[in-house]
UniProtKB/TrEMBL annotation:
Keywords recorded for this protein, A-Z: Disulfide bond, Glycoprotein, Heparin-binding, Repeat, Secreted, Sensory transduction, Signal, Wnt signaling pathway
Summary of subunit composition and partner proteins: Interacts with the extracellular domain of FZD8 and LRP6. It however does not form a ternary complex with FZD8 and LRP6. Interacts with WNT1. Binds heparin. Interacts with LGR4, LGR5 and LGR6.
Residue spans of biased composition, Basic and acidic residues class: 175-219
CDD domains: FU (cd00064)
GO molecular function, one term: signaling receptor binding
Span of domain Spondin-like TSP1: 116-170
Pfam families: Furin-like_2 (PF15913), TSP1_spondin (PF19028)
Family: Belongs to the R-spondin family.
Disordered: region residues: 169-243
Protein name (database record): R-spondin-3
Primary location: secreted
Length: 243
């Protein structure tokens, strides 16, 4: 055994030295060199740290460093996450996204530009004025639509979701609350009123007829009686009969 190689290594090392740490790793572990000041020490890890990617060989599994602008990578030329200030696009880290794409500051990726999409217009609402559908001739009607796709930062903005226009309707009276009950009550009152009117008219008629009858009777009492014409045969005296 080499004098710099220690026996009984710790931390997954297959072989190690007191000065350089791990020299080789146990199966399936990755060997990586960590810099401490001016010194590099070998360590064995189950997965490669940030900024490294793993490669497997028959004799050793190693962690290789990603490009400087890449935080994590699949291979040296294919980044999976960029460092701050860079945007990921097709495995590369860019300071500015290409044309047709926009920077997503949440995912730090270049994504496609999404434009706003709206649904079809709804049918026009009934003609109203101040929330009512009766008691007026000119009002307004509206229609609405929904946003089905919100735009991205550089996408086309959303259009208006409501429209209003003037409308003309045939004027009609508003039905008040409880109109049915009120109408029946009004009809009952009107019927009672008509009956009372007829009763008063009949009473007036009877009173007028009674008054006329009484007046005729009083007139008959005040007028002198007509004398009956004398019978000619009764007026003849006995003297005249003798002649």
């Amino acid at each position: 055994v080499h004098p710099n190689v220690s026996q009984g290594c710790q931390g997954g090392c297959a072989t190690c030295s007191d000065y350089n740490g791990c020299l080789s790793c146990k199966p399936r572990l990755f060997f990586v060199l960590e810099r401490i000041g001016m010194k590099q020490i070998g360590v064995c890890l189950s997965s490669c740290p940030s900024g490294y990617y793993g490669t497997r060989y028959p004799d050793i599994n190693k962690c290789a460093k990603c490009k400087a602008d890449c935080d994590t990578c699949f291979t040296r030329n294919f980044c999976t996450k960029c460092k701050s200030g860079f945007y990921l696009n097709s495995g590369k880290c860019l300071e500015k996204c290409p044309d047709g794409l926009e920077a997503n500051n949440h995912t730090m990726e270049c994504t496609s530009i999404v434009h706003c999409e709206a649904s079809e217009w709804s049918p026009w609402s009934p003609c109203t004025k101040k929330g009512k559908t009766c008691g007026f001739k000119r009002g307004n009607e509206v229609r609405v639509r929904e946003i089905v796709q919100h735009p991205s930062t550089r996408g086309n903005p959303c259009p208006a979701t409501s429209e209003s226009r003037k409308c003309i309707v045939q004027r009609k009276r508003c039905q008040k609350e409880g109109k049915g009950k009120k109408s029946r009550e009004e009809k009952r009152k009107k019927s009672s009123k008509d009956e009372n009117k007829e009763t008063r008219q009949e009473s007036k008629g009877r009173a007028a007829r009674r008054q006329n009858r009484e007046q005729r009777e009083n007139n008959n009492k005040t007028q002198p009686k007509k004398r009956k014409a004398p019978n000619k045969e009764q007026d003849l005296s006995p003297v005249d009969t003798a002649h």
